[in-house]
Amino acid sequence: EPRSSCDHNEDVHLRCRAITGQSYPMFQLIDEDGRKIDSTSVQTGLLLYYGKTVCDDFFTDNAAHAICKEMGYSAGAIGWYSDSIVGVQAEYSIGLDDVQCGSDQSWSSCTYETRHNCVHNEDVFLTCDIAGFPEIFE
Question: What is the pTM of this model?
Fold first, then answer.
């Protein structure tokens, strides 16, 4: 029988709760009305990470390419920008900051923070290259 040097006053008590509501993919793009952008059209959208916006601190072209590739666009990003406000942003929390990605432009090369020091005019808007989206040509 295993022995422990702990007393019951050192026991840990947990209370768990189910998370309800909408489930979000890791990354998605939405338009100014909050609708998911169709992956078969070239359209710039507000970038969301698990349903929260992404801040532009340290964000570069490498991060844009890595995220588009993570969403399935093998050719990566066409471009990105920030310093813009559309009405839908206020409905979302900011969820990702300080995204820094390596030159191989893969999400696994990226570091990031889920705490932020941002405001919504720092949210990232991203355009991915549909020429690299494999389902279009199947």
Answer: 0.78
